[in-house]
Amino acid sequence: MEFRPMSDAASSAPRVALLATLDTKSAEAQYVAQQLASRGVRPVIVDMSLRGESPDIADVPRSALMARGATSATGDDRTGAMETTATAARGLLSEWLADGAVDGALGIGGGTGGWMSNRAFESLPFGFPKLVVTTVVKSTGEDDILLLPSVVDVAGTNALLRTVLRNAAGAMAGMVQSVAETTEPRPAIAMTMFGVTTAGGDVARAALEAAGYDVVVFHATGAGGRTMERLTREGRFAGILDWTTTELVQNIAGGLCDAGESRLSAATEAGIPQVVVPGAIDVINVMPPIPDAFAARAHHWHLPTVPLIRSTAEESTRVGRWVAERLAASPAPAAVMIPAKGYSSLDVEGGPFADPDADTAFEEAVREHAPDAVSVTTVPAHINDPDFAREAAQRLLSLIDAANAAPTPKE
Amino acid sequence: MEFRPMSDAASSAPRVALLATLDTKSAEAQYVAQQLASRGVRPVIVDMSLRGESPDIADVPRSALMARGATSATGDDRTGAMETTATAARGLLSEWLADGAVDGALGIGGGTGGWMSNRAFESLPFGFPKLVVTTVVKSTGEDDILLLPSVVDVAGTNALLRTVLRNAAGAMAGMVQSVAETTEPRPAIAMTMFGVTTAGGDVARAALEAAGYDVVVFHATGAGGRTMERLTREGRFAGILDWTTTELVQNIAGGLCDAGESRLSAATEAGIPQVVVPGAIDVINVMPPIPDAFAARAHHWHLPTVPLIRSTAEESTRVGRWVAERLAASPAPAAVMIPAKGYSSLDVEGGPFADPDADTAFEEAVREHAPDAVSVTTVPAHINDPDFAREAAQRLLSLIDAANAAPTPKE
């Protein structure tokens, strides 16, 4: 039977999953386990070795991960085995977490073990303590995984490496022994922003905060939108004011701030109210110099190293359809708010990206494809006008109130 | 008078320097300070704001950093002020550390504050607990700074950010409250290795370990050599077996694994014995495709993405002189051990980098420039021959014994 840390629920000690490739890091893992235990934390050792039999110190031997799909390295090809082993470990950790059977996760390794730990941890919930000691430090900044560069090789148990491992064990123990917050958190609303939509966004944010909400701002950089959507799926937000949907047009046109095709699906999946604004859908970020494909378009140098390209009416149409179709599927109230006088500080009368036809193309596409359940409102204002911002914030607050008042839908 | 945390030495609580730009992150810093205090850790708040007056919560206000050279941001130009402020904070922390007045350092910030904290921490000693919460996660892997991606903006005190900051405070508290190691560490020897010198290096390493030393291996990647030298200056090693000095030729020829011109100076500065071997000085790493400048030379594809270039006799001469001149300045015993049959697994009879003339050029330059005090030994063996490796290890052990037996030089 597969080991489960719940089996000694009698103990109240916090439990930490300790991931390592025991075929090469057995002594190192044992040292960390001892360090955790000396701080009152119970280690649960998971062996991520890519071949061979696990030693006795493994609470979860390689065979248990293989039963979950982990494969063995063959010859010099380790990539496939690394992927399947990390996925198996992630599945195990997710189940333990759902059972409340583990309070933190700590991985140690070089290029191989560090990569697998990172991979196994990256989809674990925000806030769950996770730490990787590794020689190869890489982070997209989208996950709250603590990274500790080992500086020296994770090999042997010399005094330098022991110092690093002791700090790692101390940090993990400190996190899992953390005092829970005593004050009840306020409900949170997520917002997306960009430099060119901030003036209005700050007004909307203040209005939401005044109504009793925490507002969490994400920069629409691609990574920002992805992170917002992941946290939305984790149930962190009461609603979304998607003020800056430039990531949609950047996906369509090949811009840098691309959050992928799944953008604008999380609120619908999580069943929470959302208000969508076409903020900065006039803007496409590219690397300098300006690519030939965009040479004929209007452009603007935001910084000496940051050229911006004007999107076209055809692209705006596709964004409008994208918005309408995603919102059509929402079980919770959803609305589109359109500032008719421009979508960014560049897209304003006399500005470098002024293009009423392109803006209208968005509105027409939204109205063509949105069902009646999705309210579409055009306001004769610019996105950065305070009145528009307050109206958008108020709309979201109304949708949240309506959702809270509505009877729970039947299964 | 400048604030010093020693002023209440009566308290036995561990002290943590907390760095932030209080003009924008005052509430966030206060939250972290409360979280530290609730865990029995005393925070010492250092204000790294780039302009304005510090609020009362600053234990070290901006004026104190300005007295140490911090400048103010002018207009949009923040770069200079960031550099001087980080340097001032680093000086302060170094002094506190020397006085035993601080047990850890924690920085929080976005792009600006995170960068400054990293900068202030990067020269603090290995093992001293240091953690940065930041939106921009970058690490060369050369410093043991724990990095916690904030995922959300470090702005406001919403529940998500509080979760991140609570984990940061918990991790820092766990590190500074760490139990000291009870077993006496073994003395350590540093070694440099490369794939093409590992076969012999592993034999030397085993011989050193059998003699009672911890061996800490650094890969001669540029970063590896720099890290070894930094830790050498911190006094971490009893001796150096500089088995793989390819970083010297890579500096001369413009290779990727360049550790800078100060390479091979740390053991001399620290006054510890060293044995230097010309391991892999036949090898220059370049990015593919092979640059025109090297087109006429012998090359070898180590991996499909890693081309290696053969160094020339002229470059070997320069490496030899570099080695001889640095060792000539050493107050401690120093030796050069030359494996006459080749310097890497490629530089071997019949191998792709076999070039006896280039190898001899190294030896001649060393012998020409080394003073009598530096022993130079040529062994009729290849670097990866076990006998050569054992002889090199034995030579270092003898030098360490001689250094320990020698009377302390008069001041």
TrEMBL record, chains A, B:
Signal peptide: none annotated. It comes from the Bacteria. Residues 14-179, 186-399 form the UPF0261 domain. Transmembrane segments: none annotated. Coiled coil: none annotated. This is Uncharacterized protein (UPF0261 family). InterPro entries: Tobamovirus_resist_UPF0261, UPF0261, UPF0261_C, UPF0261_N.
